[in-house]
Amino acid sequence: MADNTTKFQEIYDYVNTFLGGGMVDVELDPIHYKTALAKAFNKYRQRNENSVEESYIVLTLTPDTNEYTLPHEIIEVRQAFRRNVGSRLGGLGGTGTGNPIFTQTIIATSGQQELSVNYNLLAIARIEVTVNGVFTSNYSTDSAQRKLTLVNPLTAGDVVGIQLFSSAENLGGSLFEPFNLAYTNTYLLAGSGIGGLATYDFFAQQQELVGRMFGSFIEFVWNTSTKKLTILQRPRATEEILLYCYNYRPDFELLNDYKANQWIKDYTLANCKYMLGEARSKFATIVGPGGGTTLNGDTLKQEAQTEMEKLEKDLDMAAAGGVGYGFLIG
Known about the structure:
The protein is of the alpha+beta class.
């Protein structure tokens, strides 16, 4: 934050100097400089792809939670990658990894919420709780007291089932790293005879097809305004996924970019010049001895408008950074 403040002050000093600060009185307050700089950032991010970068972020899915709010810097989520290959994770309502290491059945009393578990919960990776045969995740865990507290009170005669598992990984799928599999498998790397890279390619395509047909890939809806990511499938266990995103480059990166830095300075200057001209044009002439003084408000506004149009044209021509344009046919 301190680095940003220093960079911003450099731009404010740059603008003030070009407006004649130190020689004449520049009638701009700090809020005017901040507004002009904010508009320059917004215009650059709106019109230039150099303000965006690709990134990968890790998102932890929690059971029975479909909506997740991502940071406001993220503008697009392109794809979600899972750590495993196969059907979706089991977890609540699914089959665990192996057999549970502890099972307990409790007949509830009226209004009961606390469930005592005679096992060290710190050594547990996953807990499955059912109420009358229906899986639920509406409870909290107290490892020190070895008990579970349900959010909703139970009624007399409810049957509560508790299962503890020592591992919550690889539920319903298998870990799979394609490069490691090919590199360590001499059958797939054999260039002659059976096997070979063609077999590996067919295998990879077959896995992708099966994943698309049977729900291995995570489908989602991304809202660019609210920054909410909605997972269309219901997560049944805690799982980490990798999101391929586009996000805005931070302010300090743009100010350190030699192409973007000068454009932002000049566009801030043009905005400040326009605001100054707008204020001075309210009073074209100040009455005084010898006929008074004529202000240059209209001239400043015209110059500022011309400069802004030129700078926006520079964005169209990728002069302020970007990947440029490809070939167009037709």
